[in-house]
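Changelog note: in this version the structure field was regenerated for every chain. One regenerated record is shown below for reference.
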Amino acid sequence: MPKAYSCRGSTNNYICRVLLRHIALIFSLFPLMDTHILEAQRVVPPKELPIPEVTIDASVHGRPECVVLLHGLVRTPRCMKKMVCFLEAEGYEVYNMGYPSNRLPVEELTPLVFNALSKQLEQRSYNKIHFIVHSLGSVIVRQFLKDNEFKALGRVVMLAPPSQGSEVVDRLGGIFLYKWINGPAGLQLGTGPDSLPNRLGPVNFECGVLAGRKTINLYLSTLFPGENDGKVSVERAKLEGMKDFRVLDVAHPFIMQNREAMRLSLNFLREGRFGSEISSKPES
């Protein structure tokens, strides 16, 4: 009678571990609770297709200040729609940008994003240009402002930024499926001293950071030593030079749609701190 197959022996154990890692990664990267992530994953293009252009959905009404929104890795501008409506109601013009986050490294994404933005802004005259950026968007802004000046720069709010990298990249970055979904930029976000976020150093502009400590992904959360949002730990979201920091009970994919995150972001744009109550609208 043939023996039942078991994962005994070093070779079989190794194969089983690899298979389990891939299965866990599949479930971790396709959380059914986040329709926006699923939407983004469906449009992951083959490498041979042309690099998509940057898109900008702008609302221009002659107001004195604007806010530029940048989504995170493998997301689309759709995930920022609630933020757009909120900021417009509070008196800001909003530029909601889309960019091919998983097709190029950060060093190539950065000029792509800011060249497109500059073309949009060159005919405008704003008193202040603020940024609210999610995850990878924070690294792109840091990459640009490290070596470039930005005229009329206001304040920057970073939502769940991998300011010091993410353990997810350290542990899963070598897996083919992770590389295929997240692309070159996704591999640059590790926690090592030579990773891109850690090489960018402290910020020299007004910046506030909102981190999350709730997760919808129990597997990814096991990769972190402390509180985390399923993608970035609370400690590694902190950024040297930031003006204010707050932790919210929200998961990484949803922080830009969280009411408290929107309220605090607005406070920071107006006051340079998160505070507790929303201040008055900017003068028109």
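Spot check on this record: The chain has a mean pLDDT of 86. The radius of gyration is 20 Å.
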